[in-house]
Amino acid sequence: MEDLNIKVGDYVVYINTGTKGRVVDIVKDENGDVWVVLDNNLMYRPHLLRVIDKSEVIKKRDEIEEAVKEIEEEELEEGKLIDMDLGDACGAG
Residue 35's beta-bridge partner residues? Predict the structure, then answer.
């Protein structure tokens, strides 16, 4: 494959959208084009990816988890979500 500075296990960001992920494979298609496969199962051309530090991915994940938690708390307060305990509920067939 062409001289890539990206390798399996690297963390990268797709420069067009900011999507971040870990490289799980690098493949060449039938036309000879090289594609980088991320852990989201999407394939990107390597020239559109930039290698980043793992901490950038973890920081983003933490930000998302915090935002979800805040939204859930707001919706619970507004009565949009109901916090209930179903005990030992199970399906029957």
Answer: 27
CA dihedral 77, 82, 86, 92 (to 10 degrees): -160
Q: Is the CB of residue 23 less than 8 Å from the CB of residue 38?
A: yes
3-state SS assignment for residue 44: strand
CA 21 to each of CA 24, 32, 68: distance values in angstroms, whole numbers, following the listed order:
9, 24, 20
Higher pLDDT, 29 or 1: 29
Is residue 37 predicted with pLDDT exceeding 60? yes
Residue 81 neighbours by CB distance under 10 Å: 13
Contact 5, 51 (CB under 8 A): yes
- pTM comes to 0.59
